[in-house]
Write a structure and sequence with these properties.
Strand content: 25-35%
CATH superfamily of the largest domain: NAD(P)-binding Rossmann-like Domain
CATH architecture of the largest domain: 3-Layer(aba) Sandwich
Number of strands: 21
CATH topology of the largest domain: Rossmann fold
Radius of gyration: 21 Å
């Protein structure tokens, strides 16, 4: 296998607290909604930077918000974090909190169900907006495995003219996948290729969790949504179309000892975002799930436990008492919280973008990637690898926005911005990325 090129952290920046040097907007105030695994990790990462004045950490469970704030007590300048309770589905309450706290940006770290109320609340409050997953899709009513229905992000892009007219930015899909994978795609187009044949996001890991027969390392609610919906593929001349879940299996060799993992088509935002800003003949997303994980997802689907529509069930109090609950929410409640699995987790996770095409008239194939070792992320931040890898990218993006390096208005994906400042700052944060040339 070719030797990867790794972009390492400069020695002078290797420390627990890195002082940022904002160049533009000073005093950014952020409302972070969602203090779960990714939100909590984002707080720990942001605490080591000084590009913002204050971050309000809000969650439906006030104890989670308070714990996230308490975890960074004594890190960086004092008094920069506060906790609040908020219902992410309550648009009016979120709008009021944004105004009350004078927040410049709403950072959405909730699951995709809450994208639209938070998106609308930010617009109503005159704030900017950033998320890591886009508005939900709906399958085509007649041909779900051939044609697109409502695509991921359609509801947000429909409101793009309003955001542009208001001179406000909604930066959508700015996690790791989507997010860093999209930055890699733009970097490849700008720096590495003259013409691109295919951009294929490939995600794989060798993570294991001790003591559990089944313990996903990321939100099972979101994982079910991604994996059981019809996957979307983009082809120039044909546009976007769908296939059967888990289609087109391939074995992909991941770097840094992870090795060969079978990957399958999964619905993901990159396929909807990349073609809007990057010229490519084909765009795909494939996830390394494994037969066991796929089998469990298929079983959940067969039993109807992937459904989000509430059912009426008897409570523990007896037959006389009932409650309305979503089967998927029950599955999520029955499984361990991914944020709590770090001490039992071993291995590495890799997010990356595989690109083929030509440069100077010659064929070229590269894989741009980002690997996080769980042992490292737990030791350095107390966050497991998957949530930490997701959380670092929106914080990097917020710093670029605060410094005026990234600017824009409307509803924009990561591909709409210059990739090199992002990748350089990612290295400065202590999180190197790499390129493998084939």
């Amino acid at each position: 296998m070719p030797t990867p090129l790794t972009f390492a952290l400069p020695a002078e920046l290797d420390g627990p607290y890195v002082k940022a040097q904002p160049k533009g907007l000073i005093g950014m105030r952020i409302l972070l909604v969602g203090a779960g695994g990714v939100g909590g990790a984002a707080v720990r990462i942001a605490a080591r930077r000084d590009f913002f004045e204050h971050m309000v950490v809000a969650d439906y469970d006030p104890a989670r918000a308070e714990a996230a704030v308490a975890a960074v007590d004594g890190v960086g300048a004092p008094g920069r974090f506060s906790a609040a309770r908020i219902d992410a589905s309550d648009e009016a309450a979120v709008t009021a909190l944004l105004r009350e706290q004078r927040c410049d940006v709403l950072f959405n770290a909730t699951d995709p169900r809450f994208v639209m109320p938070l998106f609308r609340a930010a617009y109503a409050a005159g704030a900017h907006y950033l998320d890591m997953a886009m508005s939900l899709s709906a399958p085509h009513p007649d041909a779900p495995y051939a044609e697109c229905g409502v695509k991921l992000g359609d509801d947000q892009f429909a409101l793009a003219p309003d955001w542009e007219a208001a001179d406000r930015l909604a930066l959508v899909g700015m996690g790791v996948e989507p997010g860093l994978s999209d930055v890699f795609a733009r970097y490849a187009a700008d720096e590495l290729f003259d013409e691109i044949e295919e951009i294929g996001v490939r995600d794989g890991a060798n993570l294991t969790v001790e003591g559990y027969e089944f313990a996903p390392s990321f939100s099972i609610w979101t994982t079910i949504e991604e994996c059981l919906n019809p996957p979307v593929v983009y082809e120039r001349g044909r546009g976007w179309y769908t296939t059967e879940p888990f289609s087109e299996p391939e074995v992909f060799e991941f770097p840094e000892g992870i090795g060969a993992v079978e990957c399958v088509n999964v619905e993901h935002e990159e396929v909807l975002l990349v073609p809007r800003w990057v010229e490519a003949k084909r765009v795909t997303f494939k996830y390394g799930l494994g037969d066991d994980f796929i089998g469990k997802l298929k079983t959940l689907h067969a039993l109807g436990l992937d459904r989000t529509e509430p059912l009426t069930v008897r409570t523990a109090d007896g037959a006389a008492t009932t409650a309305r609950v979503s089967p998927r929410d029950v599955v999520a409640a029955a499984l361990p919280d991914p944020a709590t699995l770090g001490d039992r987790m071993h291995g590495k996770t890799c997010a990356g973008t595989w690109v083929t095409g030509t440069k100077d008239g010659r064929p070229r194939e590269v894989y741009l990637y980002h690997v996080v070792d769980n042992q490292w992320s737990m030791r350095e931040y107390g966050s497991q690898a998957v949530v930490w890898q997701t959380a670092i990218n929106p914080i990097v993006a917020l710093e670029l926005l605060a410094g005026g390096v990234w600017k824009g208005a409307g509803v924009l994906g990561p591909e709409a911005f210059a990739p090199k400042p992002f990748l350089d700052l990612l290295v400065e944060y202590g999180s190197p990325w790499g390129i493998r040339e084939s």
